[in-house]
Amino acid sequence: MRITVVGDAPQDLEAALREGLGYDLLLVSGGLGPTHDDRTIELLARAAGVPLHLDDELRAAIEVLSRRVAERLRRPYGDFAEGVAKQATLPDGASWVGLVGTAPAVVFAHDDGLVVALPGPPRELQALWPRVLETEALQALLRRAKPPDRRVLRFYGVSESAVARSLAAAGGDGDGVDVTICAREFELHVDLFVEPGASARAEAIEAQLVADNERFLFAQEEVGTAELVLGLLRERGLTLATAESCTGGLVAARLTDVPGASDVFAGSIVAYADEVKAAQLGVPETVLAEHGAVSAETAAAMANGARERLGVDVAVSVTGVAGPGGGTEAKPVGLVHLHAAGPAGERALQLDFPADRETIRSRAAVAALHLVRQLVTDP
Amino acid sequence: MRITVVGDAPQDLEAALREGLGYDLLLVSGGLGPTHDDRTIELLARAAGVPLHLDDELRAAIEVLSRRVAERLRRPYGDFAEGVAKQATLPDGASWVGLVGTAPAVVFAHDDGLVVALPGPPRELQALWPRVLETEALQALLRRAKPPDRRVLRFYGVSESAVARSLAAAGGDGDGVDVTICAREFELHVDLFVEPGASARAEAIEAQLVADNERFLFAQEEVGTAELVLGLLRERGLTLATAESCTGGLVAARLTDVPGASDVFAGSIVAYADEVKAAQLGVPETVLAEHGAVSAETAAAMANGARERLGVDVAVSVTGVAGPGGGTEAKPVGLVHLHAAGPAGERALQLDFPADRETIRSRAAVAALHLVRQLVTDP
Asked: Which chain B residues contact residue A355 at CB under 8 A?
């Protein structure tokens, strides 16, 4: 498996495509647009040594979409005609599979391999890929492939080294089991790729990793942390809100990124200014004055304030110094206080990891989600 | 220029490194960690045909950091020792440049080219890169290079095809000017890369693009939209808040991603549930009942409610159907109402672009920022 990213320079792109044509499957994304710097089709055809042709049916289909866009933008269709012809040009022998935007998914066979070109915009790519999967050409390729089985372990709060030692204690990887360990904020994602016949060995490795690090394990499936937390709350009939200072809405944004979040998540008060902490979350002025905005006391008042004001069962708060400015000796950049309050109790957490602004905010958001998980599963 | 992404499989990684060694500069990131699947150094040495050695000074430096981590995690240092030795192993002739986490930046010359290996975690990579830039080896390489000049145009709300036509009218790219056009949500990012001697031609292209699409142009520099909006408000002494339903805190999160946002941005009410829209933003129950949560009327009430409740000069609201569920014939997935209210007036916007949830939310967040920009610059 190999992923190559090249710019729009024709010689770089053509070299990468030539190399890709040597594989069983070459997936290309991007470069199918209407403009001159979209060169994928032209260079694929050249690399494969086949001529190009204008596909009339495809041209007609793209024209329908482009006329709609032209109308919406109140521009003459003539502005689009050249781009439409460009996007309807295919290598001989290629077929197109669906159209979401104005760029089609294109499939064609080359030697013993298969080439799939998909549009670059994620929405179009994601919508067209299932249709490509359904094609007989891709199905035939998949029947020849023997994908490894995959096992997934997700830990929170454990060190990479500790898990590496468990893996070594279990004999390390190899012998049909390939193990990847990836640190993501405070989470550790461990994936086992298991060749046919190696499942007993995979189970032994998995058992060792789980036994040594059980209190850190939070999932044995591929699931986003926000989705997992929403599921735990939903099962228990609990609603959730957030009160955010340094994360500035990031926790709420991650929660609402999950479809159907609305039956659990009610909302958030993003209290960036202290006045908002006082007025909207009811943090007492005395707490702010005595302990400061970044303190365990303010975090507790924020969580309880959100719980009460937004009328939810569980609320989690985050307040900290995200930097790069604003740090002091007593309260350095990276200091973050979190607090979760629910019907069965409360939990507080202090983080103290200097880092850049984005990392601090992102880690704090992950920690907030896990604090809710811990409050709910282990009150 | 070429970017290659490979997994941890040794043969893939080694092949990519061998290829990279043929370039003037090979930058590698990742694979410098303490675990068995971090193979960059070992395979770089093999590809370059040089032996490995343990660097004692580096080992001592990593040990200091690792002992600190061990202490914080309350684990014996013995757990880390093997990983430390691994991370302190370098190809002969290589030197290390700084240490942020436990993985060093490594620089070494190979034939006429230069190899730089950086740790994968973005925080470490970003902190170490400036130190690599300062090395004499890299400075010497840069003196040999002649980077093209770059000009930047940022449009909002214009079609890719329209800009492509302007470019064609200006004679297209080539002759020392390379033009890339990239659509990002509703923004269009146009970059001109100008070879020495081609600046007159670049100016002519730029002038044509600006003249044809002036009302869509919002920046001629590389600047994030949130940062640009915060700057416009700061210049005018105005404060900002958001009131968010379908974006669920995303607009606030983008604003607070910018360092120093706090002197402009006060906070946000994320009103995901209708009860929160009524109680926290003062949206009248009659408006919600008559027009629904996704309506121009609710958007207006949300923006004005946030302005009043959070005591800010300008507030922007977003309410829409992000999907995939919840759409109706009258209010389909992708329908989003936005409203901005400020001291000098108000502006409303309706979006109606069916797409996946992430795209709808992300586009709505971008549109909210631009609505504030337009309100402030063209009230």
From this structure: 123
- What's the first-to-final CA gap in chain A, in angstroms? 45
User: How far, in Å, CA of B239 to CA of B268, rounded?
Assistant: 12
At A330, give phi and psi (nearest 5°): -75, -35
CATH of domain B149-219: 3.30.70.2860
In the block, tokens 């960059």 appear at B40
- Domain B225-377 listed as CATH 3.60.20.10: no
State the average pLDDT over residues A6-31. Answer: 89
Interface membership of A261 toward B (CB under 8 Å): yes
Report yes or no: B114 and B138 within 8 Å, Cβ to Cβ. Answer: yes
DSSP B3-62: EEE--S-HHHHHHHHHHHTTSSEEEEES--SSSTT--HHHHHHHHHT--EEE-HHHHHHH
Rg (CA), chain A: 27
Query: What is the nearest CA distance from A364 to chain B, expressed in angstroms?
Result: 13
Residue with tokens 């040009």: A89
Q: Which residues pair with B270 in a beta bridge?
A: A268, B244
pLDDT per position as a tens digit, A62-108: 999 889 878 877 778 888 888 899 999 999 999 999 888 889 999 99
Nearest to B319 by CA among A47, A172, A120, A267: A267
Give ranges for CATH 3.30.70.2860 in chain B. Answer: 149-219
d(CA A207, CA A166): 10
Residues A264, A262: Cα–Cα separation, whole Å: 5
Token pair belonging to A179: 């193990």
Pairing, β A149-156 against β A187-194: antiparallel
Render the burial of B147-166: b for 16+ CB within 10 Å, e for the rest: eeeebebbbbebbbbbbbbb
Cα separation values, B240 from A17, A295, B258, B270, Å = 48, 25, 14, 14
Strand residues in B210-334 grouped as ranges (E): 217-219, 240-244, 265-271, 314-320
Question: What's the CA gap between B39 and A181, in Å, rounded?
Answer: 13
Domain A10-144 has CATH 3.30.565.10: no
**Amino acid sitting at position A242:** T
Per-residue model confidence as pLDDT tens digits over A299-354: 999 999 999 999 999 999 999 999 999 999 999 999 999 999 999 899 999 999 88
B11 near A CB under 8 A: no
Task: Tell me how many degrees the CA angle B372-B374-B378 measures, rounded to the nearest 5.
Answer: 130
Q: pTM of the predicted model, to two decimals?
A: 0.80
B293 phi and psi angles, rounded to 5 deg = -70, -30
- Residues in a beta bridge with B217: B155
Which residues in chain B have Cβ-Cβ distances shorter than 8 Å to A80?
Answer: 161
Contact A257, B357 (CB under 8 A): yes
First to last CA, chain B: 45
CB B188 within 8 A of CB B218: no
Q: How many C-beta neighbours within 10 Å does residue A53 have? A: 14
Q: Where in chain B is the domain with CATH 3.40.980.10?
A: 10-144
Q: What are the DSSP calls for B73-125, one per residue?
A: TT--THHHHHHHHHHTEEETT-EEEEESSSSEEEEEEETTEEEEEE-SSHHHH
Q: Closest residue of B to A250, CA-based? A: B253
**Which residues are CB-contacts of B325 (< 8 A; sequence separation ≥ 6)?**
A259, A260
Closest C-alpha to A253, from A226, A287, A293, A213: A226
Nearest to B270 among A2, A79, A267 (CB): A267
Flag whether residue A180 sits within 8 Å of chain B, measured between CB atoms: yes
What residues does CATH 3.90.950.20 cover in chain B? 225-377
Chain B residues near residue A16 by CB distance under 8 angstroms: 2
